[in-house]
């Protein structure tokens, strides 16, 4: 049973980090209590901003001893409410935002050691300065922090070639619920000495321990790239193009993103600097990116080769290859603007789902038909990482409809789409995690055996339940 | 506390699989009791060979209820004694060798579902028949089974480009200690719904549950390959060549294996069909393999390009590129023969260690000097996967020395080498696991926090300790 901290206890916590790093004023704590989309606003009596592993350890030791709830937070960019306190006012926020050091860069060993509060873009830049690539890339990379990326096993646009965040972590330093520090900062490519403990904390959403630092994998920087926008009749054609591209380019296929015409329309309407990407208007589009270890020319030749075969096979209706670095950016901006461009179109009910890659076309056909029948006039805008089977199945409200009335149907629309996802053995959270938003959907999605295993692991590593209570699992 | 099964209980276990699948005769059970190198010979009153998940479940439910020890086994090719029963005669062996079905191959989804008893080569062949690659490749691939590969997180020669077995698993079906079946056979590339439970069983050495089936990742088959043998002055030159090759070829660098001259000498002396691989004799050699999504010519051109730069930079003394498929095989056979060729040279004390890739040269210099001082006249034959930092640091006895007297120094030699490994933050088991052989070395290697976490996870998932007791962890 957790306790509400007394003023005396709060003072003890604050003393562990010093007054400058202990925030109590509601205005000062607001950025830590508020989810960035305003979906959640929590209460907290105290935000602690420790500056070292030792301070994190001392905080957790005291919290465990006194049964005080701790909500770990890094960049506060999560999309499922996992990083903000609840409304009770009894949870202390532990922010990693002062622990931002890049401890080491090892270009020869293709690894980098960063503290949990390092901003993703800073990690990318530190790698680039050493002529290496840290491939994790997502919309919020300018403000999200690596500890949160690790704790949510973040996805993004580079998963196809480099994997999820899980695949990019070599070692971790973690403070456990009782304050013990696990020094797991190995940089080894192979290590079969016991259970792979780091896997529990990657995607653990801060419920099993607090990641304070990580050794991350680096890669050679591609020497060249080419990006094409292809016009397609339907998702089946997109899948055929994906398979062709993957077969020809293998690991050099570093991006394959699916977009519907309506999404392109929204972008053209609302995102400055966008332009019609291909001469031919088509119901669907794919952005294809090829990287090369040699040159832009090699990448371009590979993409031309793929598109030529796709034309011959009748898979692609039309396509255009970016002629410059600027045009490559424009193509990617079309894709990255897909989410933002939905906002001016009114209410949007969102899903972050995945199905097996080969099932994407059938899933899309079925889900689009179902939602159009369920909410007449609604405008499905499904887009995303086809190569990972990960579709952001967003639905814009009918034109002229009442926004709130549409959004009020969120849960029943979720139920409809997640029901279809389940029939395709898919996931209701491909890359955003569970947090608070999807916690009560989890038992049905995972089944009782998996839920019991998760509960027993939580019990084993955080027996007092002080770490991020109520997130992912019911307390 | 575990019980020794009574004859009545043994009969109940046998009835779960039927008489034909329950072996009791010591001659019939011997292949299941004996480790293939004769290092361990255990005792067992019963070998159960279930034919279905339901039978595995029934066995574990009864074992858990009656506190009976179960030793899971698949191909019995492990190198650390994890798969054989102890000498007490109270442990039942559960062999997966009848559950060999490839349940599904999905070329479009780049995945394959196999039962735990499927032989690795059969999995590779099933993938190839669908024009896909299952990249896991190791010496025992003709007899090891995929369940064992998963439970030991097997490595092999393709780790550099495709990762360890852990990286090749999309989903698992697992029978838990109490007989419950976890249906985790997802084929998703992205799924952030709760803890990634499969990670516990991958590399779990059968101590947390029994893997009965897996969904495995497939890849496009390379369209072409090129293999070169390069003569090198020292491991530092090998590392420079590796970095150059990786920088130029990226993911197309699919093999990079280091060998010392003495290992090549042993192969030339003892392995039929081997021949001097390069014109110039050198202290060290590297086998370099490049794959291409296009053609043999493209791979060859890439390897020529790399070697040309390496010559210019003075990194490589001489090199030869395989001119035919046959010559490629010969080059690989030189590498694969490295272990076998040590046998006729007398006693060999072995280590399966890893260090950060960039530290391999310094580690080798130090370890070779240390062992030569410690055992005058001994012949170090360190070889292996330089690109993964994984060195099989084997030491052949001095010429003419007494074999047993040399082997009697196994533990003190291990201690010397592992002490150096520890200073490089390396691993004492890079790819073979812990099992029985290295169990008592684990606490010093991992430290008390990691050991406590492992024990608490074991306790959470197998509270009665029936699964593979005494392997990896002390009971």
How would you characterize this protein structure?
Chain A is of the alpha+beta class and 475 residues long. In chain A, 35% of the residues lie in helices and 20% in strands. The first copy, chain A, has 16 helices and 19 strands. Chain A has helices spanning 7-17, 26-33, 53-66, 120-129, 146-151, 159-162, 198-201, 235-249, 261-270, 296-312, 325-336, 360-374, 403-407, 410-423, 442-446, 448-461, and strands at residues 22-23, 47-48, 70-73, 92-95, 102-106, 111-115, 132-133, 169-176, 181-184, 209-217, 219-220, 224-232, 253-260, 284-292, 318-321, 348-349, 352-354, 379-385, 390-396. In chain A, a hairpin with a 4-residue loop joins strand 5 and strand 6 (111-115). Chains A and B meet through strand 9, strand 11, helix 8, helix 15 and helix 16 of A and strand 9, strand 11, helix 8, helix 15 and helix 16 of B. Chains A, B: It holds the Pfam family FAD-oxidase_C.
